[in-house]
Write a structure and sequence with these properties.
globular, mainly alpha, Recoverin, domain 1
Amino acid sequence: MFGFHTNLPRDGTKENNAIIFETIYKNFKILWGETDPKYERPFGDDNGVPILTETHLMKNMHLLTGDNSAENKDATEYFGKILYLYLANGLDHAKITMKRFYEGLAPFAYEDNKQAQQKLAFSILDMDRDGCLNIINLLHLYKHFKFYSRIG
């Protein structure tokens, strides 16, 4: 997912942890808009620390997925929205810090924990946070994600 997968085992070494943190931090900065000034860049918190908002996850998600085509714009924005809802614990107007971003997506960085990755993917797709993917969730996914797109 995105550029998070590092092919590193979860062995707890400082080197592996540093590579994983650096990879996730790079993706955070891309979503924040640091790599291209024409994209939406959110404000920082009171201390100037970068934070992500729903708008910025939606508008800059195509930078991570690599899909900037007009026909898949809806899919990338929708994926940004459901990722935001997951990271914000379902709250509106939440501000996503680097710490929450890392904690929320770190399982995707490790090769050896497929079950944690599957649970995380399920949690992201479960927009109403009721522990199941019901027909409404599936219809929304079908409507927004094209089968042939990178996200679909």
